[in-house]
Specification:
The protein is mainly alpha-helical. The protein has three helices and no strands. The longest helix is centred in the middle third of the chain and has 24 residues.
Length: about 70
């Protein structure tokens, strides 16, 4: 897990926002696929949720501190 957060912190804010957008689209697709499969939870769904949370945490930290890593 430490590796994941350090990789995310290494990216610029613009890259993180692009990844966040892609992950939200994937989450949307996974949600509908899960509904069609009678609520089957997948490991990927959990992974996407946690990655979104990590990205949002890093973006929030940068906004609070005023770090403009671009």
């Amino acid at each position: 897990m430490n590796k994941a957060i350090t990789e995310i912190r290494g990216d610029s804010s613009a890259e993180l926002k692009a990844k966040l957008s892609d992950l939200r689209k994937e989450q949307f697709k996974l949600r509908f696929r899960g509904a069609a499969d009678s609520g089957a939870k997948t490991t990927r769904n959990r992974e996407v949720r946690r990655t979104i949370a990590r990205i949002m945490m890093v973006l929030g930290d940068r906004a609070r501190v005023g770090d403009k890593k671009q």
